[in-house]
Amino acid sequence: MSEGDGDGYGGRHPTSHERTNERPWDDSYRGEEPAPWDVGRPQPAVVRLAGEGAFTGPVLDAGCGTGENALEIAATGARVLGVDIAGTALSMAREKARERGLDAEFTLADAFQLARLGRTFETVLDCGLFHTFDDGERREYVESLASVTASGGRLHLLCFSDAEPGDWGPRRVTRDELRASFDPTHGWEVLAIAPDRLVTSFDADGVAAWLADIRRV
Questions:
Q1: Global pTM value
Q2: CA–CA separation, 44 and 199 (whole Å)
Q3: pLDDT tens-digit series, residues 9-42
Q4: Closest listed residue to residue 55, CA positions, set 41, 39, 40, 69
Q5: Could you give the CA distance from residue 68 to residue 133 in angstroms, rounded to a whole number?
Q6: How far apart, in whole angstroms, are the C-alpha atoms of residue 125 and residue 132?
Q7: Which residues contact 43 (CB under 8 A, 6 or more apart)?
Q8: What are phi and psi of 39, to 5 degrees?
Q9: Which class for 202: exposed (0-12), middle (13-18), buried (19 or more C-beta within 10 A)?
Q10: Which alpha helices (H) appear in the chain, and where do they start and end?
């Protein structure tokens, strides 16, 4: 795929999120206002995990956006690759890395085709990506993650929780859905799912979220 393809989809099939919003992910980063999930700082849950030493390298940030979480992890000394389908977001992430003098790598990649990276990671972060997918995409995404996560490696996943009221924003996720998606038949073991918060531009205190600790078996 190419960042410069004219239709904004790089020759790939649009995701359910893109079909619903009738625009490619990249357009979310081209407006005057930042995307709701682009809050200009790392998520508090990621800061906490990084401080606890949860990210041992090499680390993959799947759906890294403009790079705040990946850069927070890179600041701990871990080797980090951030991937996203939005070329504009990646350009912003690379510029932040240069400005802050941090050694983090950012590259264009399809979350459903991560094996094409030709790399394996000890730790993976998904901060706000899983909850954008429909059922079929979830299955494909989980398989893609498994293809690049080392045996015994860990996935830290932060997503919208069904405890958040209303029907705005992304699809809510239940504990049962997480356990069903990341079960042993798909190569995973869910170690813990705890309530947390996901900060957005429209709610500085954060919305109800799940933080899942998942091991690759």
A1: 0.91
A2: 8
A3: 666 777 777 666 667 778 989 888 888 899 999 9
A4: 69
A5: 22
A6: 15
A7: 68, 69, 127, 158, 198, 199
A8: -95, 5
A9: exposed
A10: 16-21, 44-51, 68-74, 87-100, 135-148, 175-181
